[in-house]
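Z., the sequence and structure:
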Amino acid sequence: MTVSMSTVTAPTADGPMDLYVAKPGGEPKGGIVVIQEAFGVTTHIEDVCQLLAAAGYLAVAPALFHRQAQHVFPYDDIPAVMPAMGALTLAGLDADLDAAFRYLADCGLTPGKSGIVGFCMGGSVTLYAAGTRTIGAAITFYGGGIAKGRFGFPPGLESGAHLRSPWLGLYGDRDQGIPVDEVEQLRGVAAAGTVPSEIVRYANGLHGFNCDDRPDVFDAEIAADARVRMVAWFDRHVAA
């Protein structure tokens, strides 16, 4: 399928925010908000948008660091990333989510025809969104903060216990920042809810296993399986 890419701006209370947009050639099956890693809207996040567009979805990635001077960081510059993450607030992230979903709505896509997927830091944002918004579907790739919330968010366990949208979580057992026992606790509270949920654990998965720009953690086999599951989850709950 032919895919077109562009960058547009969306208004927020704190000024304009860039949205990376990938559009399918025909009428989209739905719209997906793609939430960045801690490093910003990197080429990897753009590639995810293009993958979703090739699968028939209008995909948009909001630049969550738009309130700061630097929006994208190298993967090896953790000292610069930490202050940028620390400057994020719950109110700001909520406003940015609203702006991204508003863009999809302006494109004619209802909440039921919209979804969200996030990676690393963005995976935590996605789980929060699934617990506070009624949309078609949500997917978390290795989002931390399960037992203790981040960015002013409640713990992931709390969001998981109040899911309002079908949610899929994809985690690696070798992720040094996300204990397996916390993932299993999250599975339990999510399963007790009223919307569909699923957690997939990859025995050899490291944190960032889907990011092919990071050869130290990328796993091609795991990533291929996770990407198939991602599209299938959206096809089941957003496009259906």
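The CA atoms of residues 173 and 180 lie 6 Å apart. DSSP finds seven helices and eight strands in the chain.

Let me know what you think.
H.
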